[in-house]
TrEMBL record, chain A:
It holds the Pfam family BPD_transp_1. It comes from Actinoplanes flavus. Residues 105-319 form the ABC transmembrane type-1 domain. This is Sugar ABC transporter permease. Keywords: Cell membrane, Membrane, Transmembrane, Transmembrane helix, Transport. The chain crosses the membrane at residues 38-57, 111-130, 151-172, 205-226, 238-256, 298-317. PROSITE patterns: ABC_TM1 (PS50928). The lineage of its organism: Bacteria, Bacillati, Actinomycetota, Actinomycetes, Micromonosporales.
UniProtKB/TrEMBL annotation, chain B:
Belongs to the binding-protein-dependent transport system permease family. The keyword Ribosomal protein does not apply. This is Carbohydrate ABC transporter permease. It is a multi-pass membrane protein. The chain crosses the membrane at residues 31-49, 89-115, 127-150, 156-177, 198-220, 275-296. Keywords: Cell membrane, Membrane, Transmembrane, Transmembrane helix, Transport. It is found in: Cell membrane. It comes from the Bacteria. The lineage of its organism: Bacteria, Bacillati, Actinomycetota, Actinomycetes, Micromonosporales. Pfam families: BPD_transp_1. Gene3D superfamilies: MetI-like (1.10.3720.10). InterPro entries: MetI-like (IPR000515), MetI-like_sf (IPR035906). The keyword Transport applies.
Length: 335, 311
């Protein structure tokens, strides 16, 4: 634990040196630079190719949203794409008149809003609670346990919920044993919001603490000491020191979440859509899947996906502007 | 970066003199909440484990899930490991995880190293190319068409290649590589070492911990891969464990567009698998995560992940 403090200033010196270097490098001609740097370029190539094929080409492929894409007019998807008919905004017209699509948008946004209230504050609360525990052993024990579900798949999380509170689960079994009728919790559309939020909490609330714990450790302890000396009790210290210390992280994450409003997760909903029904569990992502791949209306599905992507970019850019307005860094800054 | 959180000594258990003594109610409340939180995570895992090790008789007596262990009966594990769908699935998932993680690590480390020196040719453009993936997503449908168009339907590469690169992991590695003192590179170059040798002999040994964490994150991703299997894998013997888990536990309530019924190992396909077998499958999907978890966890405190989260 004694080495890092020495390392930190060194790293800063390095940074300063690196900043100075490019000036001398600019004098080299293109050919000289290419001769010097080609191994590095070659090293980037495999990753770039993989992203090109599996990320950027599909991203461009979104233009089939403007086609009446028909997989049967060609031997492979590329040929089918070339021979399919261009129909302008026809798919979007269909989409925007489709009540099921708007249901999925409304569901998605309600879930985001619901989770902003019932999910978002929990990791903050847990982090503050854990930070106030003095015993390092209890702290690390609790951390080890609550981080764990983050590494589980959604299939596993939903399965575990099914086993615990499902119709044939442990809770229902115990209640029946005691002569009660167990409530329907896994397939009830009315309470679906609570169900998915508790699943999300179970899986990721512990993991979500990490950022806040880091911010809490970074708060200067002498502030607390000074406040205590001035007679501030623990609640006032929490209000005037702890929460302001977390402010910038909270605002940043809040804004990131807003920028991500159309992303509420996919597997969690695909897994449970059949159990609770489309009305409650259809989100934009599942709509894309069912409309595009299951029902094979490729163009409409792609149009819904493109709509989501474009709105998503607008939201991220907007959220970032908002972050700058608050004097925070945001996810990217003009450089 | 992570320096401020990493170098601070751990808080000792000594309560500072200025802090009031905790109230009894406060202590009790905190204890209750933390106990509940920990129990919420552990109880399901415990129940699954105990039930998977119970005999048919114990399960019937308990009326279903078994909470209090009475015996150690590994017959469910014998059944799922003696051939059939579950054994296939474990092999498939192991293959995908091992090969996928190796590929992801090699490609990510190479690119992170290639980008670790600002001022090299096209450095900014290439970095931008990688960072843009955060903003522009490929749609599900074009992705499906590209992967099937490449003939990867019913090919395990479909579970590997589309998710092989995470720009996030790349940025984390690159940030670490950049923090390695430039003198090391320079001296190696003066001694005539090429880039690959520098990477292998100098950079990687210095960044074992970060590389390991990135590799483990990739591994978790591959092991947990589920939806790509629904999209791209139809053949029964190529299904990964997550898919089998879904069929076993959530069967009948699942997306079935391309799904086919799973044959139950060791039993007639008309009979539903016994509860112990189901639970054994759950345990099998959890265990790899449990094995690698301590390795990931050791690095939490070192600020690797916190530094990554902060960007």
């Amino acid at each position: 634990m004694s080495a890092p403090p020495v390392a930190a200033p060194q790293a800063q010196v390095e940074k300063a040196k690196k900043k100075a270097k490019p000036v001398s490098r600019q004098r080299l001609s293109f050919g000289q630079r290419l001769r010097r740097d080609w191994p590095l370029l070659l090293m980037c190539l495999p990753a770039m190719l993989l992203l090109l094929v599996f990320h950027y080409i599909p991203a461009l492929g979104n233009i089939i949203a403007f086609q009446d894409y028909n997989p049967f007019v060609g031997d492979d998807p590329l040929e089918a794409f070339l021979y399919s008919e261009w129909i302008g905004f026809g798919n979007f017209e269909y989409l925007f008149k489709n009540a099921a699509f708007w249901d999925s948008v409304v569901n998605t946004l309600s879930i985001t809003a619901f989770q902003l209230v019932f999910y978002f504050p929990i990791p903050i609360f847990l982090a503050m609670l854990l930070n106030s525990i003095m015993s390092p052993r209890i702290r690390s024990l609790v951390q080890s346990v609550v981080y764990l579900p983050h590494f589980f798949s959604w299939v596993l999380v939903v399965s575990l919920f099914q086993m615990m509170i499902g119709g044939a689960g442990l809770l229902a079994q115990t209640l029946r044993h005691a002569g009660y009728t167990p409530p329907d919790m896994m397939t009830n559309p009315e309470t679906f919001m609570f169900l998915i939020t508790s699943q999300a909490l179970w899986k990721d609330a512990g993991w979500g603490m990490i950022v806040f714990l880091a911010a809490l450790v970074a708060i200067d302890t002498s502030l607390y000491e000074a406040a205590a000396a001035d007679g501030a009790g623990r609640w006032r210290r929490m209000w005037h020191i702890t929460l302001p210390g977390l402010r910038s992280v909270i605002i940043l994450l809040l804004i990131l979440r807003l920028g991500d409003a159309l992303n509420v997760g996919f597997e969690q909903f695909v897994l449970q859509r059949e159990m609770v029904g489309r009305e409650a569990a259809e989100v934009v992502d599942t709509y894309v899947y069912y409309q595009g791949i299951a029902v094979q209306q490729w163009g409409v599905g792609a149009a819904a996906g493109l709509f989501k992507a474009v709105v998503g970019i607008l939201l991220i850019v907007g959220a970032n502007k908002l972050a700058h307005r608050f004097g925070e860094q945001g996810i990217y800054s003009k450089s | 970066m992570s320096a401020d959180t990493a170098i601070r000594p751990r808080r000792t258990s000594l309560r500072p003199a200025w802090e009031e003594k905790p109230t009894l109610i406060g202590q009790f409340g905190k204890g209750t909440i933390l106990t509940l939180v920990v129990a919420a995570v552990l109880i399901p895992l415990w129940t699954v484990l105990v039930t998977s090790l119970s005999s048919e008789k114990t399960i019937n007596e308990a009326g279903g899930y078994v909470f209090i262990p009475r015996e150690f009966n590994p017959s469910a594990y014998v059944v799922i490991f003696s051939g059939g769908q579950v054994t296939d699935a474990i092999l498939v998932s192991t293959f995908v995880t091992v090969v996928g993680t190796a590929l992801s690590l090699v490609v990510t480390v190479l690119a992170a190293y290639g980008l670790s020196r600002p001022g090299t040719l096209w450095h900014r453009s290439i970095l931008f190319y990688f960072l843009l993936t955060f903003l522009i997503y490929p749609g599900m449908i074009p992705s499906y068409l590209v992967v099937t168009g490449l003939g990867l339907k019913d090919n395990l590469l479909a579970l590997i290649l589309p998710t092989a690169i995470s720009a996030f992991n790349l940025v984390v590695l690159r940030a670490f590589f950049m923090s390695i003192p430039g003198e090391l590179y320079d001296s190696a170059r003066i001694d005539g070492a090429g880039e690959l040798r520098i990477l292998w002999r100098i950079v990687l040994p210095l960044s074992k911990a970060v590389t390991a964490v990135v590799g483990l994150f990739y591994a978790v991703g591959y092991w947990n891969a589920f939806f790509n299997a629904i999209l791209y894998i139809d053949r029964n013997d190529l299904q990964p464990v997550q898919r089998v888990l879904q069929q076993f536990i959530l069967a009948g309530q699942s997306p079935t567009s391309s799904g086919t019924a799973v044959a139950i190992p060791g039993l007639g396909s008309t009979m539903p698998p016994s509860l112990a077998i189901k639970m054994a499958v759950v345990v099998v999907t959890i265990v790899p995560a449990l094995i690698i978890y301590p390795f990931i966890q050791r690095h939490f405190t070192k600020g690797v992940i916190i530094g990554a989260v902060k960007g």
